[in-house]
Amino acid sequence: MGKEREIGIILLISIIVCSNSLLFYIQNITADDLKKSVFEQQKDLQLQTTSDIAQHIASDISLVKSMLYGLANSYYIQSGELNGHNTTKLLNEAYKEHNITIDSLFILDKNDVMVNTISTLPSEFYLGEDFSFRDWVKQTRTNLKLVFSDGDFERQQMLRKFISFPILNQDTRQYLGMIVTSIPTVSFFAHYGNVQDVSSKFLVVYDKNGLILANGASQALVGQNFFDNYTQDFINHNKILNDLTTDLLNGKSGFALYDYGLGERLTTQYPAYVNNQPIFFIQVVTPTEEIYSRIDNALSEQRTEIVSLSIIASIIAIMILVILLRRWNVILRREVKRRTQELEDSYNEIRHYLVELLKDRYKGNKQS
Questions:
Q1: What stretch of H or E contains 148?
Q2: Is residue 172 part of a domain?
């Protein structure tokens, strides 16, 4: 009985341990499968979202380009009235239509001097200002086509992209000047996503040279080149992100999962094309903690259910063990009673045998 009870106790303990282990194993497998499923859904959705953002940006820039083309070929500007009242009216109308995207619109004459301007900040650029030293001005004069400038920090310490379009006489092709607009990069790209908060999904935008035009990871990165030491130190020279961004600047879309010290992140990317040329390069970055937080409640409820089932299973097993122990005790008492009765019967038999033996000896002695 002792051996059977010991085996029973070990068996019940084994059942409790195995059942709890199985429950937690199933829970972990389910959680992993759920995380993988949520991640794949987020990746596919984010790739589509990034593509949509790139197309939206390209569409808005194309509208700005069309606006510059229309102004450059308008009647009054073609007539040489670069600073006339009617031209200023045209600039005002165009600016009002596009002021969500642009923050200034101005005209340079053939000597690269500003002769007309509309701006959110009137004091930023002034009439008579000479722009001839600007690289994008030189490129526009030389190539006689639309030019996107490199990023420039102006007097307000705001990073801007300038878009310039040459004014050419439609009949003689004589160069008359250029129409120029400026786009404040951070506020412009803020229309398409978060460029301020690193703790949630955010945008990163580059130009073709890898200059950072907006970055939700840190405002200090705006105006830095991705491949320069400052940015590389910031990302701890992460190879996965470096390879991903290099592919992006080469016009390739895609995604990657990496961690350069601030938590694991999923990044998707697409270039924004204008006239079949990549102009801006877009990355959407999401901390995976944000992705998995959507299923934390479900996993928490599941863990609670698993713990409850484990407790219930343990209680049932303990109750079974108690019942078996009580039954074993009853059986043990019966066995003890039976053995005791057998001992008493044996004792009585021996006593009776001894008495009879003594009687026989006594009779023998008496006869002799």
A1: strand 147-148
A2: yes
